[in-house]
Design a protein that fits this description.
This protein has about 180 residues and is α+β, with helices and mostly antiparallel strands. It has four helices and twelve strands; from the N terminus they run αβββββββαβαβαβββ.
C-alpha cells in the first residue's frame, strides 16, 4: 500500500512540475500565435501558425524590419513589420521607403510590386500626415503589414508603444509543408 502511495505521489509531483514549467515557458518565453488575415502576405499566410519569442526584447530593442506581435487597440494581437524606430522620419514616395531621407530596399515586397499594375503598392505618405508628428515618438514603433494595400497598421492605428509589444516572430511551424524561418 505504501509503495502505491509513493508512486502516486511521485507521478503527481512530476505532473505538477511539468505543468508549472509549461506555464512559465508559455507566459514568459514563447507562445503560439495564428496569423489571422492577409495583411502580411506574401511573407505570411492566413492561418500560418508561428512561435512568438517573448524573450527577444527583454534586454534589447526591436530592429528595423523585424516581424513583431503586439496588442492592438481592438483588443487583438497584430503581426506587423517594424518600419520606423524611435526618432525616425518615415516617408513613402514612388513606392520607395525613405527613413530619415535615405531610401531603403524592401526585398520582401518585390513579388507584390511586380504584380501591381494599377499604381504603387504603397501609397505615398509622410509620417506627419499619418500620426501628426515628424518623427516616431520615443518608446514607440511605426509598423506596417507587407500587404500594403490591405493592412491595418500604423498608418491607421498610429504608432505602437513598446510596452504593447509581445515579442518577435520568425518561425512558421504549421502547416507542416510551409515550415520555415521568415525574414
Amino acid at each position: 500500500m505504501t509503495k502505491q502511495k509513493n508512486e502516486f505521489w511521485e507521478w503527481t509531483k512530476a505532473l505538477l512540475i511539468a505543468v508549472a514549467l509549461a506555464a512559465v515557458i508559455r507566459y514568459f518565453l514563447f507562445a503560439p500565435i495564428v496569423v489571422d488575415g492577409l495583411s502580411m502576405m506574401p511573407t505570411l499566410h492566413d492561418q500560418d501558425r508561428m512561435i512568438v519569442n517573448k524573450f527577444s526584447y527583454q534586454w534589447g530593442e526591436p530592429e528595423r524590419f523585424d516581424i513583431i506581435v503586439f496588442h492592438a487597440p481592438e483588443n487583438k494581437d497584430y503581426i506587423k513589420r517594424v518600419i520606423g524606430l524611435p526618432g525616425d522620419r518615415v516617408e513613402y514616395r514612388e513606392d520607395t521607403l525613405y527613413i530619415n531621407g535615405e531610401p531603403y530596399e524592401e526585398p520582401y515586397l518585390d513579388t507584390y510590386k511586380q504584380q501591381v499594375i494599377d499604381g504603387p503598392l504603397t501609397d505615398p505618405f509622410t509620417l506627419e500626415e499619418k500620426i501628426g508628428q515628424e518623427t516616431v515618438p520615443e518608446g514607440h514603433l511605426f509598423v506596417m503589414g507587407d500587404n500594403r494595400r490591405f493592412s491595418k497598421d500604423s498608418r491607421h492605428i498610429g504608432t505602437v508603444p513598446m510596452e504593447k509589444v509581445l515579442g518577435n516572430t520568425d518561425i512558421v511551424y504549421w502547416p507542416i509543408e510551409d515550415v520555415r524561418i521568415v525574414k
